[in-house]
Amino acid sequence: MSWLYLSFTAAFFESLRDVFSKIITNKGNQPLDEYLVAWSLRAFTLIIYLPWLLLSPHPIPTIGQDFWWALLADATLSTIGGILYMRALRYGDLSLTVPLMGFSPLFLVMASPVLLHEFPSKAQFFCILLVCLGAYYLNLNPREKNYLAPLKSLITNQPSRLMIIVAFLWALTTSFDKIGAKNSSPLFFSASLYFCTALISFPIVVIFSPNWLSKLKANFAKLTLLASLKALDMWFHVMAIASTVAANSVAVKQSSLLMSVGYGYFLFHEKNIKQRLFGCIIILAGVSLLSIL
């Protein structure tokens, strides 16, 4: 059962990455903007990632014909999603925004018939309903008697709206990840993706992040730590899926959503935690069942 501990460890580092991302974009005399943090996360993780790739048995695999278009599409959507993700964490509650990433498997099931020619079963549709129900409770305010208010909140609350967009974008990138990995190797495609996203997002940082170079130098250690958390999350996740059925590992890794709700309460003193915890548990159940069906 070593894969179980590896998956939980990956979830732990993923939730820590989200916590630290929120801290460095909100705390200190000069909080970092989402553009610089999103770019640094990719660029610094790439540097940490390269030795892992170069020490692998086959660092440069045979490249298939679908590799390049999948890489370009994946990098473009990942760049947009990365910036929106950091913006949602910066301005929204951790316990409210991160669990909405549970919509990503839902969107993946919807996109799979088009991109991967994979069709959902009736059981998977039931799991989708669980995710939607969990999102409803996540936004439920017991003081409000308007039962449509949670649905309205998903649209009117900007951080929530941004995170749902990210969930949709990353559902698409999951399909492109699979196509790219099949036309090269998982390690090589991941490294290529980090390189391209860092390259694409660099001009965005220069234009939209004032004094980006001075902020980068002053916060170099913090950004390196953030990238290290991402690299550890990735390493433990890859080790886990190498030890068991990938769907089992993915299901367990969704426990990071629950951890984020806990961090939101204990570290940031966020409100309505009972409703958010209950909603997150429902989302977690739906996502976990969806991953293993």
Describe the structure concisely.
The protein has 293 residues and is mainly α. Helices cover 78% and strands 0% of the residues.
Structure, described:
By secondary structure, the protein is an all-alpha fold. The protein has one domain. The protein is 78% helix and 0% strand. It contains 14 helices and no strands. Helix 8 packs antiparallel against helix 9. The longest helix is centred in the first third of the chain and has 25 residues. The two termini are 20 Å apart. The model has no long low-confidence stretch (mean pLDDT 84).
List the helices and strands and how they pair.
Blueprint lengths: L1 H25 L7 H21 L12 H25 L2 H4 L5 H13 L6 H17 L10 H8 L1 H25 L3 H23 L3 H7 L1 H22 L4 H8 L1 H12 L6 H20 L1
Poorly predicted segments: none
Order of helices and strands: HHHHHHHHHHHHHH
The total domain count is 1
User: Which structural class do you get from the secondary structure elements?
Assistant: mainly alpha
Number of helices: 14
Overall mean pLDDT score?
A: 84
Tell me which oligomeric state these chains represent. single chain
Radius of gyration from the CA trace?
19 Å
Task: Kindly state the percentage of residues in helix.
Answer: over 70%
How many individual β-strands? 0
Features:
membrane, 293 residues, transmembrane helix, mainly alpha, 0% strand, transmembrane
